[in-house]
Amino acid sequence: MTEASPLTRYQLAELGALLAEPARAAILLALMDGTTRPAGELAQIAGVSAATASAHLKRLLDGGLLSLHEQGRHRYFRLANDDVAAWLEGMALPHAARTAPIAAARDPALCRARTCYRHLAGQLGVALCEAWLERGWLHAGGDGMSLSPAAADALVQAGWQAAPTQQLLRLHGRSCLDWTERRLHLGGPLGVAITSAMLDAGWLRRVQRNRALLPTQDGLRRFAELGVRLDD
């Protein structure tokens, strides 16, 4: 799933087969928030037995969609990488074109702000990307998106520590097509680092039931100071 090694028709058919099983799809969706989960928990989420889940997890591992971390006797699974998450998020776009109004009405919080793997997506993610591109705080180049020194200075003025913020200048991100907004948000290592910092600063907080992120009152004020506004 990279430009260096494009998919063959057989690989694409195999990926389609991996997604065609509802239990495997449930496992992948559960890991879209960037968490690492044990097999037993994923079996419960998928509604299958431990043995059946084990078979599904092996197929997803063999297919390159999951990675495995073993700690003693315990086995933990997560999405293989950000590319897999972006691909899964993009797979929802054709479906969203038909059902987005229904999805938005069902869970507006998920559409407002959520994680796309480990970076910010939804209306807030799109608003941040567009506002910072317009201000010149984000630059799109051949190696992806990068943060400008002016943006780093603004984040420090907003309360972030200077040293970690300066480290953001060495990271690169990429544009990621948002499946509910059908516009771009910031992904890749830079998007992940910014989102993590916003969570640590208390601008956002996680929702346990799904991938939704809730902006706090302080967070909304900070976002507005940085040119990022959400429609009421």
Count of separate DSSP helical elements: 12
Please write the string of helix (H) and strand (E) elements.
HHEHHEEHHHEEHEEHHEEHEEH
Percentage of residues in DSSP E strands: 15-25%
Spatial strand arrangement across the major sheet = 1-3-2
* Total beta-strand segments: 11
Helix content: 40-55%
Structural Rg: 18 Å
How would you classify the quaternary structure? single chain
Task: Estimate the global geometry from the Cα principal axes.
Answer: globular
Q: Whole-Å distance between the termini?
A: 38 Å
Give a concise summary.
The protein is an alpha+beta fold. It has two domains: 72 residues, Winged helix-like DNA-binding domain superfamily/Winged helix DNA-binding domain (Arc Repressor Mutant, subunit A, Orthogonal Bundle), CATH 1.10.10; 128 residues, no CATH class. Helix content is 53%, strand content 18%.
Task: Characterise this structure.
The chain has 232 residues and is an alpha+beta fold. The protein has two domains: 9-80, Winged helix-like DNA-binding domain superfamily/Winged helix DNA-binding domain (Arc Repressor Mutant, subunit A); 98-225, no CATH class. 53% of the residues lie in helices and 18% in strands. The protein has helices at residues 9-20, 22-30, 39-46, 50-62, 82-91, 93-106, 108-112, 122-135, 149-157, 162-167, 188-200, 217-225, and strands spanning 37-38, 66-71, 74-79, 114-116, 119-121, 138-141, 144-147, 174-177, 184-187, 204-206, 213-215. Pfam families: HTH_20. This is Helix-turn-helix transcriptional regulator. Residues 4-99 form the HTH arsR-type domain.
